[in-house]
Specification:
24 strands; four-stranded antiparallel β-sheet; single chain
């Protein structure tokens, strides 16, 4: 007999209940603006009991789902009061496009009672569930809003995947740090937020990375987010990079001090990125949009 486990109340920020069917291997969302889902687990099945004071009949509606798609859960907790918490979900679906999709994604609703809010975003949309194609590298903006300035919060990650876990690097743009949150939680002091946009970026390494020569190791690849370009590489092997045009002009160069190095995107086109170290050099050919 399968045991039943109550999912923590952190799902209260979801605006839509998520139904995942095995047939299409994709997410199907039921629009439930104003509903508060209560979720329990029954072995491999998840039951969403949808409650609404305006439509009592929905009390008996059950949605069964099997979790086949890879899911990355980011949770935030107030370290001085662990009852104050929230979570957001990044899920994989092959072929999904960036941006809000009403059939896949779910809006973020603000929490209450002194709880923080965590959500990913795209073009200003706040998402509690963000379904993307993780077969290629992604940079996903991540925000944490909290009612208490100067309080210390902790971010931690859990993964429900079919194969190997994803490498997820958390970038704190305020402190200019990169942390492998796949292996360790990240604590930070909430500064009250500002108008410069999301404080964090999630760098998720894809299964089929772009910008890689055929003989290139999967640990070295290039990707971009809007007007920024990122190099993911081993800083113990390579110490500098150079950006060349396809016709041999050196556009810029810089130091590699961490596993992720960023620079501003040049004009769209095909480029060569040379990684240089004491004992190894690599060249990555990539197209920047």
């Amino acid at each position: 007999m399968f045991g039943i486990r109550q999912i923590p109340n952190t799902c209260r920020g979801l605006q839509q209940a998520v139904e995942l069917t095995e047939d299409h291997n994709t997410f199907h969302l039921c629009r439930l603006s104003g509903f508060r889902p209560l979720v329990v687990e029954l072995g491999p099945l998840m039951i969403s009991v949808l409650r609404c004071h305006r439509i009592p009949l929905l009390l008996n509606r059950l949605t069964f789902q099997k979790t086949h798609n890879d899911r990355i859960k980011l949770s935030v907790i107030n370290l001085s009061d662990n009852t104050k918490n929230d979570e957001t979900v990044i899920a994989h679906s092959t072929g999904s496009v960036d941006g809000f999709d009403e059939k896949l994604d779910a809006w973020k609703l603000n929490n209450y009672g002194g709880n923080p809010n965590i959500y990913s975003s795209y073009a200003g949309d706040k998402l509690a569930v963000n379904v993307v194609d993780l077969s290629v590298p992604k940079v996903i903006p991540l925000s944490v809003d909290a009612p208490q300035s100067k309080a210390v919060y902790q971010l931690y990650l859990t993964q429900e995947v079919n194969g190997n876990e994803y490498q997820v690097i958390l970038e704190d743009k305020h402190l200019n740090t990169f942390t492998d949150i796949s292996n360790a939680a990240y604590s930070f002091q909430y500064d009250g937020g500002n108008n410069s946009g999301p404080r964090f970026n999630l760098h998720i390494g894809g299964a089929n990375n772009i910008g890689i020569d055929e003989d290139e190791a999967i640990d070295n690849f290039v990707y971009q987010l809007d007007n920024e370009v990122f190099i993911h590489t081993d800083e113990a092997v390579y110490s500098t990079y150079q950006l060349w045009t396809i016709d041999g002009r050196l556009m810029q160069e810089g130091l590699i001090n961490s596993s992720i190095t960023r620079f501003s995107k040049p004009q769209a086109g095909i480029y060569l990125i040379q990684l240089k170290g004491n004992s190894s050099n690599k060249t990555i050919k990539t197209f920047l949009k």
